[in-house]
Amino acid sequence: MEEDSKGESSMKALTRRGFIGMAATAGMATLAGCGSTSSSSSSSSSAATTEAATTSDGDLGLVEDGKLTMIANMYFPPFESMNDSTGEPEGFDIDLGKSLAEHMGLEANWLPSQAFDSIVPTIKAGGTADCAITGMTITDERLKEISFSDPYIDSNQALVVRSDSDDTEDTLNSSDKKIAVQAGTTGEEWARENLTEATIVPLDEIISGMTGVSTGSYDGLVIDLPVASNQIKNSFTDLKVIEQIQTGEQYGIAVNKDNEALLDAINTALAEIKKDGTMDSLEQTWFGTTL
């Protein structure tokens, strides 16, 4: 997923990108927030324009008229990933982006995947993408550079090891331990603040981190809990979560600070998606439950 994705960390209290089976409560997150190679995808919207599109495309300051152009790190399942058969992006964030564009009377246009830690600078610079939907946690530090929509998902972190490991957070905090993280994420931030004795290894995407823990290259991995849960259930059955880190994060959609009109339109569409049942449907599809 992440920086750039997909709550601010006070470590052991707050950090990034819980658990799918846990219900979200006010003030505490229960679910999570992500670069590599990829391809792009566009989806046409056939729905009527709603309140979110009361202004013209020009007023929204879009990169390309008639399209909502979005970026993400496409290696952060189940939020975003590349379909091996079609080569197209898929996931909760991908479908959310399509729904937002539809409610805004626009065509959804996904750009190729990019490294998570490059997403905030890209949105800040402008001219490439209108917004980023990439499992990114809203933090005070990021808010200095970009704007965020209203939150759309709550998140926690997870500490992952091999299923046959006896390691704990305490034993992993040792100079002979290597802990994988995704570069630029709140997971990396938490690891650096809490596992100060260990060697922290930043990676472009989380799959290589999961693989590295599985093969023994790394002793542990810090990653968003729903992503860890999804991958352990579907792919990395030899791994386990030894700690659910209650970071209390929330994901938001990243928008350039100078584009308040687009931010307002996205927030309006997001509210409509929550109200009309679309959000519940997307959560059922990708998480097997409503959050």
Description:
It contains 9 helices and 13 strands. It has 291 residues and is of the alpha/beta class. It has 2 domains: 41-154 and 250-287, D-Maltodextrin-Binding Protein, domain 2, CATH 3.40.190; 157-247, D-Maltodextrin-Binding Protein, domain 2 (3-Layer(aba) Sandwich). Strands 1-5-2-6-13-7 form a 6-stranded mixed beta sheet, with helices on both faces. Strands 10-9-11-8-12 form a 5-stranded mixed beta sheet, with helices on both faces. Strand 9, helix 5 and strand 10 form a beta-alpha-beta unit. The longest helix has 16 residues, at 260-275. It is globular.
Features:
single chain; 291 residues; alpha/beta; D-Maltodextrin-Binding Protein, domain 2; 6-stranded mixed beta sheet; 5-stranded mixed beta sheet; 28% helix; 21% strand; globular; disordered N terminus
Topology of helices and strands:
Layout lengths: L40 E3 L23 E5 L9 E2 L6 E2 L1 H12 L3 E4 L8 H7 L5 E2 L7 H4 L3 E2 L4 E10 L6 H4 L5 E5 L3 H9 L4 E5 L2 H10 L4 E5 H10 L4 E13 L2 E2 L4 H16 L2 H10 L4
Helix pairs in contact: 1-8, 1-9
Mind telling me the C-alpha Rg? 18 Å
Structural class: alpha/beta
Largest beta-sheet details:
6 strands, mixed
Mean pLDDT: 84
Identify the strand order in the major beta sheet: 1-5-2-6-13-7
* Principal-axes shape call: globular
* CATH domain fold name of the largest domain: D-Maltodextrin-Binding Protein, domain 2
Order of helices and strands: EEEEHEHEHEEHEHEHEHEEHH
Taking pLDDT < 50 over at least 5 consecutive residues as the criterion, the unreliable ranges are 1-56
